[in-house]
Amino acid sequence: MIRNTSMNTQHNPSRPNPVICEFSRDCIEQKQFGFFVDRWAPHRLPHGQALLPLMDSMVFRLRGYDPRQLCTIPEVRRFCQDFFEAWPFWFFTGNLDTPNLAIMVYGCLHKLRAVGRQATSLCQVSPDPEELHQFVQRGLCAMTCLCKRAGMTESEIALRSTRVLEYFKSDWSDLPSQPTGGKPGWK
After folding, report:
1. Whether 67 contacts 76, CB under 8 Å
2. Is residue 146 part of a domain?
């Protein structure tokens, strides 16, 4: 377990080599992700096959806010935007089995549209498809750099890219503040 006063990174025994990256409200509001960026800087990462266990291994968690509204909170959005600019490798490391990566990505987008509230007061959002596409393309470029560093073949990189693209078509609407996967109202 690696600890900082406001960001917690720990290995999760339920998955091979998983890393849980929790950012507290203080960390988010003060944009304190430098510890993470230093710890996981590309020059500190291994080369070749030793890098592969990091793929799909990180779950990002943002704490201290109403989880039903995470990707719409201005402080969270600014944090996600600045964090991605400092460390754009989310699509290589991000776990694609949870909606957490989508929350981080949607927090980076400038055009989000609330598409309704259910009886449980869960906010559902839909991104502008063109903006999401442009963001994903930027993320895939950074991902490809780490894939090549890991010695992955073009077909392996294409498979990971496809998984990332499919991830953003997932319907997370049954979870708090998760993307609906739809495109209502955006053209």
Report:
1. no
2. yes
Q: How many structural domains comprise the chain?
A: 1
Residue pLDDT, tens place only, 73-131: 999 999 999 999 999 999 999 999 988 999 999 999 999 877 665 544 445 778 889 99
Report the alpha-carbon angle 53-41-105, nearest 5.
75
Whether 105 and 90 have beta carbons less than 8 Å apart is answered as yes
Mind listing the pLDDT tens digit for each residue in 126-158? Answer: 888 999 999 999 999 999 999 999 999 999 999
List own/partner pairs for 31-35 with CB under 8 A and 24 or more apart: 31/78, 31/79, 31/82, 31/83, 32/4, 32/6, 32/7, 33/7, 33/79, 33/82, 33/83, 33/86, 33/87, 34/86, 35/4, 35/7
Residue 175 counted as domain residue: no
pTM of this structure: 0.80
